[in-house]
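FAQ: What does a multi-protein file look like?

Like this. Sequence, then tokens, then the next protein.
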Amino acid sequence: MREKWQDDGGEKKITMKINNQEYSMVVEPHWTLREVIHDKLGLTGTKEMCDKGACGSCTVIMDGRPILSCMSLAIECERHEIETVENLEVVGNPLVEAYANNHAMQCGYCTPGFVMTAKALLDRNPDPDEEEIKDALEGNICRCGTYPAHLGAVLEAATKLGGGKK
């Protein structure tokens, strides 16, 4: 187990598995999962755009489900498995490349949330149709307006993962 970031004034020591690595840390009861992932562990792919659960840029996958890390208290994530966008490169997931190929990002700030939401969709449904993709991604906001490109990116990734029609 990797000990990362200790604080003598913290409220509770918790353990979480993030990107297949176990972390044990002391957290304050009001800290969000996004704060711990981004600010304390330095996994900066998880973004904060609205901090109100309205934009999706902070989306991570916890126990196979996409969640908004800005709306999840870290203390409630004890003993859960969490995956962030940083893990996609490690495991060789084609979503990031498909997003680049389909020009599904401009400023890129929303991209990690879209990609993690898309990954959760493809994990549970390897061959989604356009409506299923739209439904899955509807909670994510892009200020640059790249919405149409997300469909192509997710369909390309599905094909590369073996679920999409060829």
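And here is the next protein:
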Amino acid sequence: MIQLIFNIGISSVFFILIASVVFIHYYPNKFFNLFQSAIITFAAYLAYLFSIKLTIPLTRAIPLAILCSVAIGVSTELGIFRIMRHSQNDPGQNSPSFKMLIASIGLYTILQNLISLFFGDDTKSIRTGEVKVGHEILGAYITDIQIITIAVSSVLFIAVLLLLHKTSLGKQIRAVSNNPELCNIYGINSDQVILYATALSAALAAIAGILIALDVDMTPTFGFNYFLYGVVAMIIGGVGSYRGLVFGSLLLATAQHLAAYYIDTKWMDAVAYIILILFLIWKPLGFSGQRLKKVDV
């Protein structure tokens, strides 16, 4: 039982980090960018390429992988999503967010297939040392990478909260989320703010992908499941609610691990989507119970 509690806590921290990735991008953009799931995977495979194939020290390979992941995230924003976002001003162009969602699915498919083509579909690992038994605490075991993940994820989540509430960029992101047209009128460049948010979310996605790969290895599709967990955690926690990310992640992790313990591990994904469906039917606003405000010009 103690091990089960530890596992729930570790998974919750993973989900909080992924939910932060989803949140930072969704907040000003108002669509779920599924291409971020490919960035999660892409960063891990870049770290594998740099550290294992090119024998670059891991301490240098990881920052390099993060920078490359940010670059591809920013490139898709500049070359695709910004153009699609501005097309909403053209006659006959409706639902730009839906179009960008579809485009993100296409981009995810392309990058995922490229990863499979160049690296194969088998499981890869960026761990080079021998596998060690974790540290025993109260009869449960926790590994070094899990401890690092808890620390890094907690620090990053707090940093995101501080950025949104204590910095000029954070206030601009919140303003653009509320009304980008009004922001442009008052001199805030919504395109630039969205670009910064995209770069930040890509960096967080890359860090998350590398941490996950260090813990459980990687396949070309592993990022997609974790990204969807982040989406589920954000929705059941309440879109726009920071505390909701924590509660949503904790509920999701608890339900998944209890299902794995009492039924079977194959039910972990199913339980996540059952919870999502139940919340969408009976509590669509999530834990927060508050609608996002929007002021029309």
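Q: Is there any per-entry metadata?
A: Some entries carry free-text notes. For the entry above: The CA atoms of residues 176 and 183 lie 6 Å apart.
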